[in-house]
Write a structure and sequence with these properties.
alpha+beta, 2 domains, 166 residues, 5 helices, single chain
Amino acid sequence: MSEWHVSISGERYGPISTPQLQGWISEGRVTGKDIVWREGMADWQPISDIAELAAAVGSPAPPMPGQVGQASPAAWRPHRGGTVLALGILAIPFACFLVFGILAWTMGKKDLAAMDAGQMDPMGRGITQAGKICGIVGVCVGIGYAAIFAVQMVWMASMMAAMSGG
């Protein structure tokens, strides 16, 4: 059995198995309007037009007791990918301000988790990931600068002590 490729709001996923796709349908991650394709199909088709998937679209499973369901796209918080990316980019040349890198890193991590949980608009995933990575690089560069500065200070102190005869 061939695996499915899914297009959700223009972003493609896959290949995924039929049971996994049916799980996504029951979780509300995909709807009957989202389109799918697999080997042997002439073109992409809405899930509601595929017999083996249409049944899952019609009856979403209720959430388990105590389980928080994913929010619908209308309830998603807007992504902050641009902010995370800007902070991440600023963290690299201005590594002495570690706060930019730390903010980009932590905001990126939280926002990606919210996207994975279906609470935040996933369209900003790419720039959020890029901002998080830039933040990590900025923090590492900042720590490197601090280490070099500390070594220089120790070296200067030992040279001054040697010149003063001490």
